[in-house]
Design a protein that fits this description.
Shape of chain B: globular
Strand order of the largest sheet of chain A: 1-2-3-5-4
Largest interface: A-B, 29 and 26 residues
Strand order of the largest sheet of chain B: 6-5-8-9
Helix content of chain B: 25-40%
Shape of chain A: globular
Structural class of chain A: alpha+beta
Number of helices of chain B: 16
Radius of gyration of chain B: 24 Å
Radius of gyration of chain A: 15 Å
Distance between the termini of chain B: 44 Å
Oligomer: heterodimer
């Protein structure tokens, strides 16, 4: 595959920065629209990146979101420096949440973040190290769905 | 390419290229080319921000004039409830409607009752709805355009119920043609509008169908004749009584009015385009799925904030609240019969049959591979720009300029700073500012 039709973007996410939370997913959405990606895929990507971004904002000190786009697929990798997840299987259950009261007050932490990311992705990967951080990777295919 | 109808036009003679319009445009639909403002048709959503900001008055609304009335044998005025907010406290809707008749209409229909019915229909719809949330109101044509152009992924969330002005026009024409023995085409239904945007939903409905309204005259244009027509009116002559003015319906002229009168629990009233855009961004990211209904208006405080009204927005807003209070105190209150509404609802009386078509902006290239290349090119150009969004090139921001260059609509040499000594300094300063 030629490199010239792959687009890379790197976004920094700051932990606890609720004011700007969500801005990365809006930027990615704009890129996808300009490239002409179909709107149902745009919506899936927007939801998945928003949730991934929020996880960093809520739990980690900082994180990096790597975005790449080729004519075949969209790849998003989020790597954070944070507390990590002890029991990934548990964290993947719908409704499970470690959000604080304060976060819930703001409408976050319904325990849908990770399951929602997975639901909107074609491929999903997660790994975590307690005390170090979490990596989440997703792929959304652009080739005609069958 | 499809021709887009717009409810505003730029008067080139008057325009002196001051760029204010370009800066306020929320969809970046304006460029300055050869010293004159130019509209990018596919981007404009007719919000009218530019019309109120132009110091030259060079951006004008395209509403109808009174001469429109001569096309029909029988004319019905359908005033927006915002009209009631334009006058003093002593001038109540019954008098206003009578005044409207006097200035040249055969009949003035109070749309508030239709608004009330549609409120209840929306309530029914929300109750039965099982899909993605929140649902979004469609009475503001700018909001519908905004979704078509910038949020096509939200199209299915727009409530598919005809706005009250359309239902009122449809039913009035049907009823009157029978009663008067006229063809429906011989009856004109004219909206008295607080904003130019209603013209787009009349001339080019988002659903691609045909509007039941035949035109719209601005509230600003009827104001003076109406004031004089209402002088010396005798209450006994009034064709409409205050008891027929529906409270639930009047609330349609202010943001959050539908939510307020329906007492919808999980709903939001949002007004002002920049606020609406924030809410829609949240909807896209799935953040607001616990909200049932978003009532959105492009103008601040809703229709009372329209650019073609006369009275100050906040005064009108308060007058509507006061009017609701006044009417609530009366013994007889007009209110649509909920059982009747449910019956009509089941009979499809309220539904819009056609689907709204998205109008997404053209991507950078036809196929994704080329578009990605262009996107990278755009990024490179952007990196080389001063990033101070001065606008002198004729594009609203450096980013928009980079895109215009990639699309071949501007030349990199249009940036006067890029090659200047001073720019190098500015660049150093702005780089520092970045981190």
């Amino acid at each position: 595959m030629s490199v010239e039709n792959i687009l890379w973007e790197k976004f920094n996410i700051t932990g606890r920065d609720f004011k700007n939370a969500g801005s990365v997913s809006i930027k990615i959405k704009e890129i996808l629209k300009q490239v002409g990606i179909n709107s149902s895929i745009v919506r899936r990507v927007a939801i998945a990146t928003y949730e991934a971004e929020m996880n960093v904002v809520m739990y980690a000190n900082k994180g990096i979101l790597n975005f790449s786009l080729s004519p075949e697929k969209i790849e998003i990798n989020v790597e954070d420096e944070g507390p990590g997840i002890e029991d990934i299987e548990l964290a993947m259950q719908e409704g499970y949440s470690t959000a604080t009261e304060e976060m819930r007050e703001m409408g976050f932490g319904a325990g849908m973040g990770l399951p929602n990311i997975k639901k909107n992705a074609d491929e999903f990967e997660i790994s975590s190290e307690v005390g170090k951080g979490t990596k989440v990777g997703i792929i959304i295919n652009l080739k005609k769905e069958t | 390419m499809e021709q887009y109808y717009h409810s505003i036009y730029f008067d080139e003679e008057k325009c002196n290229g001051r760029m204010r319009c370009m800066r306020v445009c929320p969809t970046q639909a304006i460029r300055i080319r050869n010293g004159k403002a130019k509209m990018i048709e596919e981007r404009c959503i007719d919000c009218g921000e530019c019309t109120t900001t132009c110091p030259q008055n060079a951006i004008l609304p395209l509403t109808d004039s009174f001469s429109e009335l001569s096309k029909f044998k029988y004319n019905i005025a359908i005033p927006s409830p915002a009209l009631y907010a334009q006058f003093g406290r002593e001038i109540l809707p019954d008098k206003v409607l009578e005044g409207v008749r006097k200035i040249g209409f055969d009949e003035a229909y109070d749309v508030a009752l239709a608004c009330g019915s549609v409120s209840f229909a929306i309530q029914e719809y929300i109750r039965d709805y099982k899909g993605q949330k929140p649902l979004i109101s469609n009475s503001c044509p700018v909001i519908v355009r905004l979704i078509q152009v910038k949020y096509p992924e939200l199209i299915d969330l727009i409530i598919p119920i005809e706005p009250p002005r359309e239902i009122a026009a449809r039913e009035m024409k049907k009823g009157k043609s029978k009663k008067l023995g006229l063809k429906e085409e011989e009856i004109g239904a004219i909206y008295l509008t607080p904003c130019p945007a209603k013209m787009i939903s009349i001339k080019q409905p988002a659903e691609g169908g045909k509007s039941h309204l035949d035109g719209a005259i601005s509230i600003a244009d009827v104001y003076a004749p109406l004031l004089s027509a209402m002088e010396g009116l005798n209450k006994r002559e009034y064709k409409q009584s205050l008891e027929n003015i529906c409270i639930v319906g009047i609330a349609w002229s202010i943001a959050g009015g539908i939510c307020r009168t329906l007492r919808l629990k999980n709903s939001l009233g949002v007004s002002g385009l920049s606020h609406v855009i924030k809410i829609f961004d949240d909807v896209v990211s799935g953040k607001l799925k616990n909200i049932d209904f978003v009532e959105a208006y492009a103008c601040i405080e809703g229709c009372v904030g329209g650019s073609l009204t006369v009275e100050n927005i906040y005064i009108s807003y308060n007058k509507i609240l006061k009017l609701i209070e006044t009417l609530e105190l009366r013994k007889n209150k007009a209110c649509p019969d909920i059982r009747e509404i449910r019956r009509l609802y089941k009979e499809d009386y309220f539904f819009i049959r056609e689907k709204i078509n998205p109008r997404p902006l053209k991507p950078l290239a036809e196929n994704i591979s080329d578009a990605i290349k262009k996107m990278k090119e755009k990024d490179e150009i952007y990196q080389s720009l001063p990033k101070i969004d001065c606008g002198v090139c004729g594009s609203p921001t450096c980013l928009a300029f980079a895109e215009d260059v990639v699309k071949g609509e501007a030349k990199i040499s249009d940036c006067i700073l890029i090659s200047s000594e001073k720019f190098l300094k500015i660049k150093q300063v702005s780089r520092k500012g970045e981190n």
